[in-house]
Amino acid sequence: MAVRVLLFAHLRRQAEQPEFDVQLSEGASVRDLAAQLSEKGLDLTGCMAAVNETYATPDTALSDGDEVAFLPPVAGGSGGSEGLMQARVTAEPLSLSDAERFVVRPQFGAQSYFVGTVRSPNRGQTVTLIEYEAYASMAEKVLRDAAAQAQTRFAGEGEELAVYLAHRTGRLQPAEASILIGVGSPHRRAALEACDWLIEHVKAVIPVWKLEELEDGQRWVEGVRPAEVL
């Protein structure tokens, strides 16, 4: 059988191309695929895997035609009200007014926002820019799932929440917005708590990586591991 392999962040630099097909025996698992790639010189230590845009374990069985992404630790669903959520990953600048237009509605007496921007200096070094790389289709799926979870967790009985989530990709200068979250709710507490939960949850699970450009070189920003690693 054949599976499609996708590589991201520093893994892309280890291979001749970031996407390629691999032939496997029937019944092979993610672990078997990883072992085959490691034999060819790809260092997957500490990486996670996603099969068809869903986080997987090393024991996950593969099928012909599967898309398997190997993901370094990320830099920081079901249910929900689809008409009250908007999630996107974009190379375009983020605008607080876009979030405002989405979450400000007559039934919501409270809105809460979070804007994350590129910081410099970081860890004692001047950052000239950050390049954000994303597994975009999976990242949007992760954002939609996070919005749905927030709606379930924080909406009061008989009430609804509007959730706006957007994440930038590409090269950003210091002070440019990299992530934008907006929540609309009938009451203040739900809006504030949902916004706070969303930023902590999203930064741990969204497949986005950050390459910092420094005055004396580059470094990948160390991420977190939301799934079982190889």
Task: Tell me about this structure.
This protein has 230 residues and is α+β, with helices and mostly antiparallel strands. It has two domains: 2-71, Ubiquitin-like (UB roll) (Roll), CATH 3.10.20; 85-221, Molybdopterin biosynthesis MoaE subunit (Aldehyde Oxidoreductase, domain 3, Alpha-Beta Complex). It contains four helices and 13 strands. The protein has a five-stranded mixed beta sheet, with no helix packed on it. Strands 6-9-11-7 form a four-stranded mixed beta sheet, with helices on both faces. Strands 10-8-12-13 form a four-stranded antiparallel beta sheet, with no helix packed on it. β12 and β13 (217-220) form a beta hairpin. The two termini are 22 Å apart. The model has no long low-confidence stretch (mean pLDDT 92).
Per the CATH scheme, the topology name of the largest domain is: Aldehyde Oxidoreductase, domain 3
- What CATH architecture of the largest domain do you see? Alpha-Beta Complex
Secondary-structure element pattern, one letter each: EEHEEEEHEEHEEEHEE
| Sheet with most strands: strand arrangement | 2-1-5-3-4
Q: Strand share of the residues?
A: 25-35%
Mean pLDDT score: 92
Q: Which residues sit in consecutive blocks of at least 5 with pLDDT less than 50?
A: none
* 3D shape: globular
CATH superfamily of the largest domain: Molybdopterin biosynthesis MoaE subunit
Q: CATH class of the largest domain, anyone?
A: Alpha Beta
Instruction: Kindly give the count of domains.
Output: 2
Q: First CA to last CA: what distance?
A: 22 Å
Taking all Cα atoms into account, the compactness measure Rg is 19 Å
What portion of residues is helical? 10-25%
* Beta strands, count: 13
Structural class: alpha+beta
How would a crystallographer describe the biggest sheet? 5 strands, mixed
Tally of helical runs: 4
